[in-house]
Amino acid sequence: MVFLKESRERIEQAYDCLLKELPDAMGEIDGKIKELPGDTALAMKYLYATMPCSDIANYPFEIYLDYASHGVYLYEHSDYVKQMPEELFLNYVLYHRINEEEIAPCRTVFYEDLKGRIQGMGMKEAALEINYWCMEKATYQSTDDRTAAPITVYRCGHGRCGEESTFTVSALRSAGIPARQVYAPRWSHCDDNHAWVEFWCDGTWYFTGACEPEPIPNKGWFTNASSRAMLIHSRWFDNAAPSGEDVIGREGRATILNQLTRYAATKKLTILVKDENGAPVSGAQVDLEILNYSEFYPIAVLTTGENGEASMVTGLGSIHVHVCKDGVYSEALVDTRTKEEVTILLKGADPTEEWNEFDVIAPVDTPVNTDQPTEEQKAVSEERITKATEIRLAKVKAFVPAWKKEFLKDEDRELRQALMDVLTVKDRIDADPKVLEAHFQAALAYRDSYSQEIFVNYVLNPRIAMEVLSPWREDIQESFSEEQKEAFRREPKAIYTWITQNLTEKNEKERESIFTTPAAALKLRIAGKPSWKILFVAIARTLGIASRLNPVDGSMEYWENGQFVSVEEGTVKNSHLTLKAGEKTWTYFQDWSLARLDNGRFVSLKLADTPWEEGKMHLALEKGVYRLLTSNRLPNGNIFAKELTFVLEDGADREVTMEFRMAKLSDMLENIAILPFYLLDENGNRVEAGPLTAGEKKILFWLEESKEPTEHILNELMERREEFLPHQKELYFIIRTKEALKDPTLSKCLNALPDVNIYYDTFKENVNTLGRRMYVDPDKLPLIVMTDGELNGVYATSGYNVGTADMLLRIMGM
């Protein structure tokens, strides 16, 4: 079988174009490629011809050789690879990048661990088996937005969903199974996002949760949630367009593919943009946005054609359309349940200067994928999951980050520990001790120039934004003459002037969320603007100038005369805004946000760490147009929102009182069908939930005795005893064992309400399935679900919540 027979000509052409475009960067690389065997050389040419420029600059040749060599091995030896088209092999087996993760060799390591385990299996069976292996290696843990390498997730045993999915995709690709990460950039029904995995076999794409094995494909805790999404997408890095895919557009180097129809009921929305004279506007940017975390977040960015139109297949709910061109913008909130087309006049939007309210409708769940495993399959899978958890916990217990052994030396131990303390939690897992040592030694010369707080945070610290930690101080020192360095120290703003004069952007060849490291940017002289800012800070710190990216707006700053000074002209923060909280306690990116208009688009400020003081928040800001959003997320996923856009003049001092929309009880209720499940009676007999919930409203409480959240709801029930007495027989307390009945608070509550029903459960599948089905956190107990006389959920809550008993009584009385 000739290696890449159908694709080799286009690969050679694309690679030749790259050599002409980047002769300096590719010269040494091309020399190494010429020394490789023919098939491996062609694989390397494909990787380099399609990767972002930042990948060319950030990582050494040898890392990609691991991917290419293993890909060629699979092409020659894997029966799976023989079954697939070349474009799938290239993009979803050979390719090194999945999304925005750090790149490190992993495929050979994973394959050696997996090959015996999946020997003799078909592709689908092998894919499901690999996910059990993935669960043995890693599980979910919330972390920061930097995406660790799959090999890091494998070693440390955890990652957020974006990391679990890149790890699982890497494992599948290592075995020769085409796989990709799919992503809901923001949910419509709750403030979150999610990523999972699709794998290809038998001519079809299937999905599964990453490190969340199921006995059958096309099932995951997110099956119903995904049917409420307004967009689910994947990425494609090839130069050639994919076949049989719905292309949304491009995001630099990546092509964005719409996968929503595999998960939800959909509709094609067409946006027509016209100018004030009614003529179509071409080249306008159309942001399709979701109100999530109390900000309008773009889930897709489109561009209008010559006819002024842009379109996308989306879900059935509210979407905010923001159109801009040449700094002018217009907006509209569209309900796609009733509209397929919307016309927007691009004439500029004046600040309202007063609060306006609006409703955001989340799609109802309409699952496309309804297959369920048999009881036997579920039982076997549960046993395997228990075993996988044991294996993983043993592995995690033995994991020790390398820096603890190699960087935390006795010499300057206190300062070394201070450095580790200012790094992120994730850095303290995967930081290379050699990189840390290089930064530590290079920065010591400036130790006495600042207080320890300023020195450690803004000179010694190698972490600037969410870039890959790398050594850069030596490269920076060698890149400038002594005269240049002294000039930069005298006038730090000159550093950024030099950057703007010596670096260029190739945004069409980049991924905006993948940063070029400082040393790589200096070498390639190509990087995106966010990487320019990182480079400024790196050069400044290398030269002993304390510097940072402002935590609120990301602007470049350096330390001078006891304060941080902005680098860029026009970023003077001499206007003042005071927000007045009123009666409510506000949480940033939960029920409010503040954004500033920048070249036709609103950019949210980062105010999560800014305190309220005596009911007020004081902000020093640039002049400009601002948008204040407040939101009340209802249990059914809809949002009651308010918006205020206003002008903050130069030098102004303005007060704004926050406003919040309250909801009626009827707005709080849901209507969600629950799949059949069972509980156990006191004798261990199975009792189906359907008959239990038949008739009147019922309330089911999964209680975790002796824990504060459960104690709280039990105390609330007792405080409202007289009102709950008529409803005792509609209350179901569900516990793990009879031992729970000895708990003092639970016993006291049962004495107060003696006719409450008692049932038993393992708290495994039911709690997880019902919690997710009702869109509450299944990891927080107690789980409380109210049904409406059938196996149909109308209200749910989980964890610690004040006033739950009152809410339950109000709903029972409706």
Structural description of this entry:
Residues 153-212 form the Transglutaminase-like domain. Pfam families: Transglut_core. This is Transglutaminase. This protein has 814 residues and is an alpha+beta fold. Among the domains are: 8-237, C8orf32 fold (Roll); 257-360, Immunoglobulin-like; 400-460, no CATH class; 666-812, 3-Layer(aba) Sandwich (Glutaredoxin). Helix content is 35%, strand content 23%. The chain is built from 29 helices and 34 strands. The strands form 10 sheets. The protein has a 6-stranded mixed β-sheet, covered by helices on one side. Strands 16-25-24-21-22 form a 5-stranded antiparallel β-sheet, with no helix packed on it. A 4-stranded antiparallel β-sheet has the order 11-10-13-14, with no helix packed on it. A hairpin with a 5-residue loop joins β28 and β29. α8 (123-137) crosses α10 (161-174).
